[in-house]
Amino acid sequence: MTDTFGPLNATTDLETLLKVQTYKDLHGKAVSDIVQSIHNDPSIFKSGATCPFISSSLSTQTLTTQPTSQSLKIRQVDIALIEKGLPHFHAITENYFETRLPDTFNWDEVASRLGKEWAGEWYIVAFRSVRNDRADAKALYEADGLAHKEAIESGGLLKYWYGSLNERRQCLAMCVWSSRDFAKLATRKPYHRLASSLASEMYESYTLERWSLTKHVGETVFHLNQL
Hints:
It is built from eight helices and eight strands.
């Protein structure tokens, strides 16, 4: 079986995260309209380009969006994590399907790179699956890609990691979110629902794990607790 998926270690681009959410906050537009505006004028993503709806001091501020009645925020510590820590995130074992999440990735290196001065708590969703040998890999790949793009546009997704399928068709995928509320918001989106609807058909079995990721001031380690 040819697997359309390759391993993916994607940190959400900081400029994308800030521009999409700030444009939405300032202009009250739907995310789809914002993304279309960005597609129409891709120059706003070029390094050093001036974006008409972002101030030069934005990276030091707390950004607020209101995708629902509850206000969700991208925090300064999220920005620091994207800039300093997550670019260095990687798996430290090839047997990640059968390894507990705290022992699968270089969490403490990421925490050390983030720095002692930062503290925060994040929300992780991990998806362990055994692929059906008759699964349509192309359909899965397309649904996953659409759901990933949709999650970025929804806001709050900081990292998406996807491993390679092993010889027993086992795999691990994982998302790091700014908060549980951001993750809940994304699950209501249409492409996430589409990807979820394929699960019973495409997988022999699967499990969802939810974890909290915490760091305290003065520490260079993360604390992971399964919820």
